[in-house]
Amino acid sequence: MRSVLVTGGAGFIGSNFVHHLVAHTDVDITVLDALTYAGDLRSLAGLPGNRLTFVRGDISDAELVDGLVAGADAVVHFAAESHNDNSLAEPRPFLHTNIVGTYTLLESARRHDRRFHHISTDEVYGDLELDDPGRFTETTPYNPSSPYSATKAASDLLVRAWMRSFGLRATISNCSNNYGPRQHIEKFIPRQITNVLRGSRPKLYGQGRNVRDWVHVEDHSSAVLAILERGRIGETYLVGADGERSNVEVLATILRLMDQPSDAYDLVTDRAGHDLRYAIDWTKLREELGWAPAHRDFEAGLAATIEWYRSNEDWWTGSKDATEDFYRSVGK
Ligand code: NAD
Ligand code: TDX
After folding, report:
1. In 3D, which of 10, 319, 332, 303 has the Cα closest to residue 179?
2. Nearest CA residue ID for atom 28, ligand 1
3. Where are the domains of the chain?
Protein backbone atom coordinates (compact mmCIF):
# COMPACT_ATOMS: atom_id res chain seq x y z
CA MET A 1 0.00 0.00 0.00
CA ARG A 2 1.69 3.22 -1.17
CA SER A 3 -1.16 5.72 -1.22
CA VAL A 4 -4.31 6.27 0.81
CA LEU A 5 -7.34 8.46 0.15
CA VAL A 6 -8.70 9.72 3.47
CA THR A 7 -12.20 11.22 3.33
CA GLY A 8 -13.13 13.66 6.09
CA GLY A 9 -9.45 14.18 6.88
CA ALA A 10 -10.00 17.77 8.03
CA GLY A 11 -12.42 16.66 10.75
CA PHE A 12 -11.69 15.52 14.29
CA ILE A 13 -10.87 11.84 13.90
CA GLY A 14 -9.83 12.04 10.24
CA SER A 15 -7.19 14.70 10.96
CA ASN A 16 -5.85 12.75 13.92
CA PHE A 17 -5.64 9.68 11.66
CA VAL A 18 -3.71 11.66 9.01
CA HIS A 19 -1.22 12.78 11.70
CA HIS A 20 -0.94 9.13 12.76
CA LEU A 21 -0.33 7.94 9.17
CA VAL A 22 2.40 10.53 8.68
CA ALA A 23 4.11 9.51 11.92
CA HIS A 24 3.80 5.72 11.58
CA THR A 25 3.88 4.88 7.84
CA ASP A 26 5.50 5.96 4.57
CA VAL A 27 2.28 6.20 2.56
CA ASP A 28 1.28 9.21 0.52
CA ILE A 29 -2.02 10.68 1.65
CA THR A 30 -4.75 12.51 -0.23
CA VAL A 31 -7.45 14.09 1.91
CA LEU A 32 -10.87 14.69 0.36
CA ASP A 33 -12.97 16.97 2.56
CA ALA A 34 -15.81 19.40 1.85
CA LEU A 35 -14.74 21.68 4.75
CA THR A 36 -18.24 21.88 6.18
CA TYR A 37 -18.67 23.73 9.50
CA ALA A 38 -16.92 20.67 11.06
CA GLY A 39 -13.82 20.64 8.85
CA ASP A 40 -10.80 22.81 9.49
CA LEU A 41 -7.66 22.91 7.35
CA ARG A 42 -5.69 24.15 10.36
CA SER A 43 -6.11 20.64 11.78
CA LEU A 44 -3.65 19.47 9.09
CA ALA A 45 -1.16 22.31 9.58
CA GLY A 46 2.51 21.42 9.83
CA LEU A 47 2.27 18.11 7.98
CA PRO A 48 4.84 17.49 5.20
CA GLY A 49 3.64 18.83 1.83
CA ASN A 50 5.45 16.09 -0.09
CA ARG A 51 3.29 13.43 1.58
CA LEU A 52 -0.08 15.15 1.83
CA THR A 53 -2.41 16.49 -0.87
CA PHE A 54 -5.61 18.25 0.12
CA VAL A 55 -8.65 18.30 -2.17
CA ARG A 56 -11.73 20.26 -1.22
CA GLY A 57 -14.86 18.51 -2.46
CA ASP A 58 -17.98 16.53 -1.69
CA ILE A 59 -17.84 12.73 -1.38
CA SER A 60 -21.07 12.55 -3.39
CA ASP A 61 -19.40 14.22 -6.41
CA ALA A 62 -19.04 11.04 -8.50
CA GLU A 63 -16.60 12.43 -11.07
CA LEU A 64 -14.25 13.96 -8.52
CA VAL A 65 -14.41 10.87 -6.31
CA ASP A 66 -13.72 8.51 -9.19
CA GLY A 67 -10.47 10.22 -10.15
CA LEU A 68 -9.23 10.28 -6.56
CA VAL A 69 -10.16 6.66 -5.83
CA ALA A 70 -8.47 5.53 -9.06
CA GLY A 71 -5.27 7.25 -7.93
CA ALA A 72 -5.08 5.57 -4.49
CA ASP A 73 -4.38 2.02 -3.32
CA ALA A 74 -6.85 2.25 -0.45
CA VAL A 75 -9.71 4.43 0.79
CA VAL A 76 -10.29 5.16 4.48
CA HIS A 77 -13.71 6.74 4.81
CA PHE A 78 -14.27 9.08 7.78
CA ALA A 79 -16.35 11.83 6.13
CA ALA A 80 -19.77 12.16 7.70
CA GLU A 81 -22.26 14.44 9.31
CA SER A 82 -21.44 13.34 12.84
CA HIS A 83 -23.51 15.18 15.44
CA ASN A 84 -26.71 13.68 16.87
CA ASP A 85 -28.20 17.01 17.95
CA ASN A 86 -27.82 18.40 14.42
CA SER A 87 -29.47 15.29 12.98
CA LEU A 88 -32.49 15.89 15.21
CA ALA A 89 -32.76 19.51 14.03
CA GLU A 90 -32.08 18.94 10.30
CA PRO A 91 -31.65 15.34 9.08
CA ARG A 92 -31.24 15.95 5.33
CA PRO A 93 -27.45 16.54 5.21
CA PHE A 94 -27.02 13.25 7.09
CA LEU A 95 -28.81 11.33 4.35
CA HIS A 96 -26.81 13.16 1.69
CA THR A 97 -23.33 12.65 3.12
CA ASN A 98 -23.62 9.47 5.15
CA ILE A 99 -25.72 7.48 2.68
CA VAL A 100 -25.35 8.99 -0.82
CA GLY A 101 -21.72 9.96 -0.15
CA THR A 102 -20.80 6.47 1.03
CA TYR A 103 -22.62 4.95 -1.94
CA THR A 104 -20.62 7.20 -4.31
CA LEU A 105 -17.31 6.09 -2.79
CA LEU A 106 -18.32 2.43 -2.87
CA GLU A 107 -19.14 2.58 -6.56
CA SER A 108 -15.69 3.99 -7.38
CA ALA A 109 -13.91 1.53 -5.10
CA ARG A 110 -15.73 -1.32 -6.83
CA ARG A 111 -15.00 0.03 -10.30
CA HIS A 112 -11.26 0.34 -9.58
CA ASP A 113 -11.02 -2.66 -7.20
CA ARG A 114 -9.63 -0.62 -4.32
CA ARG A 115 -9.24 -1.68 -0.67
CA PHE A 116 -11.91 0.13 1.37
CA HIS A 117 -12.13 0.77 5.11
CA HIS A 118 -15.36 2.21 6.47
CA ILE A 119 -15.40 4.15 9.75
CA SER A 120 -18.55 3.69 11.75
CA THR A 121 -19.93 3.99 15.25
CA ASP A 122 -21.24 1.84 18.09
CA GLU A 123 -24.47 3.85 17.88
CA VAL A 124 -25.68 1.56 15.07
CA TYR A 125 -26.42 -1.02 17.80
CA GLY A 126 -28.81 1.25 19.73
CA ASP A 127 -28.33 1.39 23.49
CA LEU A 128 -28.00 -0.81 26.58
CA GLU A 129 -29.67 -0.62 29.99
CA LEU A 130 -27.43 0.82 32.73
CA ASP A 131 -27.43 -2.51 34.61
CA ASP A 132 -27.04 -4.78 31.57
CA PRO A 133 -23.91 -6.91 32.13
CA GLY A 134 -23.53 -7.24 28.33
CA ARG A 135 -21.62 -5.08 25.90
CA PHE A 136 -21.92 -4.63 22.12
CA THR A 137 -20.12 -7.22 20.00
CA GLU A 138 -19.70 -7.60 16.24
CA THR A 139 -22.88 -9.75 16.16
CA THR A 140 -25.20 -7.41 18.11
CA PRO A 141 -28.27 -6.67 15.93
CA TYR A 142 -28.52 -3.20 14.42
CA ASN A 143 -31.05 -0.97 16.22
CA PRO A 144 -30.15 2.71 15.64
CA SER A 145 -32.07 5.44 17.49
CA SER A 146 -31.33 8.83 15.91
CA PRO A 147 -31.33 10.10 12.32
CA TYR A 148 -27.50 10.23 12.62
CA SER A 149 -27.13 6.63 13.76
CA ALA A 150 -29.75 5.40 11.27
CA THR A 151 -27.75 6.91 8.40
CA LYS A 152 -24.51 5.38 9.76
CA ALA A 153 -26.27 2.00 10.01
CA ALA A 154 -27.45 2.43 6.42
CA SER A 155 -23.89 3.18 5.30
CA ASP A 156 -22.56 0.06 7.06
CA LEU A 157 -25.20 -2.07 5.34
CA LEU A 158 -24.26 -0.59 1.96
CA VAL A 159 -20.62 -1.58 2.58
CA ARG A 160 -21.70 -5.11 3.51
CA ALA A 161 -23.86 -5.35 0.38
CA TRP A 162 -20.99 -4.16 -1.84
CA MET A 163 -18.72 -6.80 -0.29
CA ARG A 164 -21.18 -9.61 -0.77
CA SER A 165 -22.65 -8.64 -4.14
CA PHE A 166 -19.59 -7.18 -5.86
CA GLY A 167 -16.65 -8.71 -3.97
CA LEU A 168 -15.46 -5.32 -2.70
CA ARG A 169 -12.34 -5.76 -0.51
CA ALA A 170 -13.59 -3.93 2.56
CA THR A 171 -13.54 -3.83 6.35
CA ILE A 172 -15.69 -1.90 8.83
CA SER A 173 -14.87 -0.57 12.29
CA ASN A 174 -17.47 0.58 14.83
CA CYS A 175 -15.92 2.71 17.53
CA SER A 176 -17.22 4.19 20.77
CA ASN A 177 -17.04 7.89 21.80
CA ASN A 178 -13.71 9.54 20.97
CA TYR A 179 -12.05 12.37 22.89
CA GLY A 180 -8.81 14.27 22.36
CA PRO A 181 -7.44 17.30 20.48
CA ARG A 182 -9.20 18.97 17.50
CA GLN A 183 -12.72 17.75 18.33
CA HIS A 184 -15.45 20.18 17.28
CA ILE A 185 -16.72 22.14 20.29
CA GLU A 186 -20.32 21.07 19.64
CA LYS A 187 -19.43 17.69 21.20
CA PHE A 188 -19.85 17.00 24.91
CA ILE A 189 -16.29 17.17 26.29
CA PRO A 190 -14.96 20.16 24.28
CA ARG A 191 -18.26 22.04 24.75
CA GLN A 192 -17.87 21.88 28.52
CA ILE A 193 -14.14 22.69 28.47
CA THR A 194 -14.65 25.73 26.24
CA ASN A 195 -17.65 26.88 28.30
CA VAL A 196 -15.44 26.94 31.39
CA LEU A 197 -12.62 28.68 29.49
CA ARG A 198 -15.14 31.31 28.38
CA GLY A 199 -16.59 31.76 31.86
CA SER A 200 -19.98 30.15 31.12
CA ARG A 201 -21.53 27.14 32.83
CA PRO A 202 -21.33 23.59 31.43
CA LYS A 203 -24.63 22.06 30.26
CA LEU A 204 -25.68 18.53 31.16
CA TYR A 205 -28.60 16.86 29.34
CA GLY A 206 -31.30 15.35 31.55
CA GLN A 207 -29.77 14.14 34.81
CA GLY A 208 -26.42 13.19 33.23
CA ARG A 209 -26.94 9.47 33.93
CA ASN A 210 -26.24 8.41 30.34
CA VAL A 211 -23.08 6.36 29.93
CA ARG A 212 -20.56 6.66 27.11
CA ASP A 213 -17.53 4.39 26.54
CA TRP A 214 -14.64 6.81 26.00
CA VAL A 215 -11.61 6.04 23.82
CA HIS A 216 -8.74 8.39 23.03
CA VAL A 217 -8.69 9.45 19.37
CA GLU A 218 -5.05 8.27 18.98
CA ASP A 219 -6.15 4.78 19.98
CA HIS A 220 -8.92 4.91 17.38
CA SER A 221 -6.27 5.87 14.79
CA SER A 222 -3.94 3.01 15.72
CA ALA A 223 -6.88 0.57 15.59
CA VAL A 224 -7.89 1.75 12.11
CA LEU A 225 -4.31 1.41 10.85
CA ALA A 226 -4.07 -2.12 12.29
CA ILE A 227 -7.30 -3.10 10.53
CA LEU A 228 -6.20 -1.48 7.27
CA GLU A 229 -2.89 -3.35 7.33
CA ARG A 230 -3.86 -6.69 8.88
CA GLY A 231 -7.66 -6.91 9.14
CA ARG A 232 -9.48 -9.77 7.43
CA ILE A 233 -11.39 -8.66 4.35
CA GLY A 234 -15.15 -8.78 4.90
CA GLU A 235 -14.89 -8.40 8.67
CA THR A 236 -16.25 -5.88 11.17
CA TYR A 237 -14.15 -4.88 14.20
CA LEU A 238 -15.40 -3.05 17.29
CA VAL A 239 -13.02 -0.46 18.77
CA GLY A 240 -13.16 0.56 22.44
CA ALA A 241 -10.98 0.95 25.53
CA ASP A 242 -13.10 -0.10 28.55
CA GLY A 243 -13.84 3.57 29.21
CA GLU A 244 -17.44 3.53 30.46
CA ARG A 245 -18.38 6.66 32.42
CA SER A 246 -21.61 8.54 33.06
CA ASN A 247 -21.80 12.08 31.70
CA VAL A 248 -22.08 13.48 35.21
CA GLU A 249 -18.85 11.67 36.19
CA VAL A 250 -17.01 13.05 33.15
CA LEU A 251 -18.24 16.55 33.88
CA ALA A 252 -17.21 16.25 37.54
CA THR A 253 -13.67 15.36 36.40
CA ILE A 254 -13.54 18.32 33.99
CA LEU A 255 -14.72 20.71 36.73
CA ARG A 256 -12.13 19.38 39.18
CA LEU A 257 -9.29 19.53 36.63
CA MET A 258 -10.30 23.11 35.79
CA ASP A 259 -10.56 24.24 39.44
CA GLN A 260 -14.32 24.84 39.33
CA PRO A 261 -16.85 24.11 42.12
CA SER A 262 -18.42 20.66 41.69
CA ASP A 263 -21.94 22.12 41.24
CA ALA A 264 -20.97 24.78 38.67
CA TYR A 265 -23.13 23.46 35.83
CA ASP A 266 -26.73 23.63 34.53
CA LEU A 267 -29.11 20.77 33.82
CA VAL A 268 -30.83 21.35 30.46
CA THR A 269 -33.57 19.62 28.43
CA ASP A 270 -32.72 16.04 27.61
CA ARG A 271 -31.95 14.96 24.03
CA ALA A 272 -34.95 13.41 22.24
CA GLY A 273 -34.54 9.62 22.06
CA HIS A 274 -31.29 9.91 24.07
CA ASP A 275 -29.38 6.61 24.03
CA LEU A 276 -28.84 5.49 27.62
CA ARG A 277 -25.60 3.54 27.46
CA TYR A 278 -22.97 2.37 24.99
CA ALA A 279 -20.36 -0.28 25.85
CA ILE A 280 -17.90 -2.01 23.55
CA ASP A 281 -16.43 -5.50 23.74
CA TRP A 282 -13.18 -5.21 21.73
CA THR A 283 -12.01 -8.83 22.25
CA LYS A 284 -11.95 -9.55 18.50
CA LEU A 285 -9.57 -6.68 17.75
CA ARG A 286 -7.27 -7.76 20.59
CA GLU A 287 -7.28 -11.46 19.76
CA GLU A 288 -7.12 -11.25 15.94
CA LEU A 289 -4.86 -8.24 15.45
CA GLY A 290 -3.07 -7.95 18.80
CA TRP A 291 -4.29 -4.35 19.16
CA ALA A 292 -4.56 -2.63 22.54
CA PRO A 293 -5.23 0.99 23.51
CA ALA A 294 -2.21 2.99 24.69
CA HIS A 295 -4.21 5.65 26.57
CA ARG A 296 -5.55 3.78 29.59
CA ASP A 297 -5.59 6.72 32.01
CA PHE A 298 -8.76 8.69 31.16
CA GLU A 299 -8.04 11.49 33.63
CA ALA A 300 -4.56 12.08 32.17
CA GLY A 301 -6.03 12.08 28.64
CA LEU A 302 -8.70 14.55 29.72
CA ALA A 303 -6.14 16.83 31.39
CA ALA A 304 -4.08 16.88 28.18
CA THR A 305 -7.23 17.59 26.15
CA ILE A 306 -8.13 20.53 28.44
CA GLU A 307 -4.59 21.83 27.98
CA TRP A 308 -4.94 21.55 24.19
CA TYR A 309 -8.12 23.70 24.18
CA ARG A 310 -6.50 26.16 26.58
CA SER A 311 -3.45 26.54 24.30
CA ASN A 312 -5.38 26.56 21.01
CA GLU A 313 -8.09 29.10 21.63
CA ASP A 314 -7.63 30.46 18.08
CA TRP A 315 -8.68 27.09 16.71
CA TRP A 316 -12.11 27.09 18.41
CA THR A 317 -13.05 30.61 19.40
CA GLY A 318 -14.44 31.55 15.96
CA SER A 319 -17.09 28.82 16.10
CA LYS A 320 -18.12 29.16 19.75
CA ASP A 321 -20.86 31.79 19.28
CA ALA A 322 -22.54 29.94 16.39
CA THR A 323 -22.38 26.66 18.31
CA GLU A 324 -23.96 28.15 21.42
CA ASP A 325 -26.57 30.04 19.33
CA PHE A 326 -27.65 26.68 17.91
CA TYR A 327 -27.85 25.10 21.36
CA ARG A 328 -29.87 28.05 22.69
CA SER A 329 -32.30 27.69 19.77
CA VAL A 330 -32.99 24.05 20.75
CA GLY A 331 -33.19 24.75 24.49
CA LYS A 332 -29.77 23.32 25.38
P1 NAD B 1 -16.34 15.53 12.29
O2 NAD B 1 -17.73 16.08 12.17
O3 NAD B 1 -15.39 16.16 13.23
O4 NAD B 1 -15.65 15.54 10.85
C5 NAD B 1 -16.32 15.19 9.68
C6 NAD B 1 -15.50 15.67 8.48
O7 NAD B 1 -16.17 15.25 7.28
C8 NAD B 1 -15.36 17.20 8.41
O9 NAD B 1 -14.03 17.55 8.11
C10 NAD B 1 -16.29 17.60 7.27
O11 NAD B 1 -15.87 18.76 6.57
C12 NAD B 1 -16.23 16.36 6.39
N13 NAD B 1 -17.43 16.20 5.54
C14 NAD B 1 -18.73 16.28 5.95
N15 NAD B 1 -19.55 16.11 4.89
C16 NAD B 1 -18.75 15.90 3.80
C17 NAD B 1 -19.01 15.65 2.43
N18 NAD B 1 -20.26 15.56 1.95
N19 NAD B 1 -17.94 15.47 1.60
C20 NAD B 1 -16.67 15.56 2.07
N21 NAD B 1 -16.38 15.80 3.36
C22 NAD B 1 -17.41 15.97 4.22
O23 NAD B 1 -16.54 13.99 12.60
P24 NAD B 1 -15.65 13.00 13.51
O25 NAD B 1 -16.13 13.08 14.90
O26 NAD B 1 -14.22 13.19 13.18
O27 NAD B 1 -16.14 11.59 12.93
C28 NAD B 1 -15.46 11.00 11.82
C29 NAD B 1 -16.08 9.63 11.53
O30 NAD B 1 -15.99 8.81 12.69
C31 NAD B 1 -17.57 9.69 11.18
O32 NAD B 1 -17.81 8.75 10.17
C33 NAD B 1 -18.26 9.29 12.47
O34 NAD B 1 -19.51 8.69 12.21
C35 NAD B 1 -17.28 8.31 13.03
N36 NAD B 1 -17.26 8.13 14.50
C37 NAD B 1 -17.15 9.21 15.32
C38 NAD B 1 -17.06 9.02 16.70
C39 NAD B 1 -16.88 10.19 17.64
O40 NAD B 1 -16.85 9.99 18.85
N41 NAD B 1 -16.70 11.41 17.17
C42 NAD B 1 -17.15 7.73 17.23
C43 NAD B 1 -17.28 6.65 16.36
C44 NAD B 1 -17.33 6.86 14.99
O1 TDX C 1 -23.80 19.79 25.98
C2 TDX C 1 -23.95 18.57 26.03
N3 TDX C 1 -24.39 18.00 27.20
C4 TDX C 1 -24.58 16.66 27.35
O5 TDX C 1 -24.98 16.20 28.44
C6 TDX C 1 -23.70 17.69 24.90
C7 TDX C 1 -23.23 18.27 23.59
C8 TDX C 1 -23.89 16.34 25.06
N9 TDX C 1 -24.32 15.82 26.24
C10 TDX C 1 -24.46 14.36 26.41
C11 TDX C 1 -25.18 13.61 25.30
C12 TDX C 1 -24.48 12.27 25.31
O13 TDX C 1 -25.04 11.42 26.29
O14 TDX C 1 -23.12 13.85 26.39
C15 TDX C 1 -23.04 12.60 25.71
C16 TDX C 1 -22.10 12.71 24.54
O17 TDX C 1 -22.68 13.56 23.58
P18 TDX C 1 -22.01 13.86 22.14
O19 TDX C 1 -20.66 14.42 22.34
O20 TDX C 1 -23.00 14.63 21.34
O21 TDX C 1 -21.78 12.39 21.57
P22 TDX C 1 -22.78 11.16 21.25
O23 TDX C 1 -24.15 11.63 20.94
O24 TDX C 1 -22.59 10.12 22.30
O25 TDX C 1 -22.12 10.67 19.85
C26 TDX C 1 -20.68 10.62 19.70
O27 TDX C 1 -20.20 9.31 19.80
C28 TDX C 1 -20.54 8.44 18.76
C29 TDX C 1 -20.26 11.24 18.37
O30 TDX C 1 -20.76 12.56 18.27
C31 TDX C 1 -20.74 10.41 17.21
O32 TDX C 1 -20.26 10.92 15.99
C33 TDX C 1 -20.23 9.01 17.40
O34 TDX C 1 -20.78 8.18 16.40
Report:
1. 303
2. 78
3. 3-179+214-239
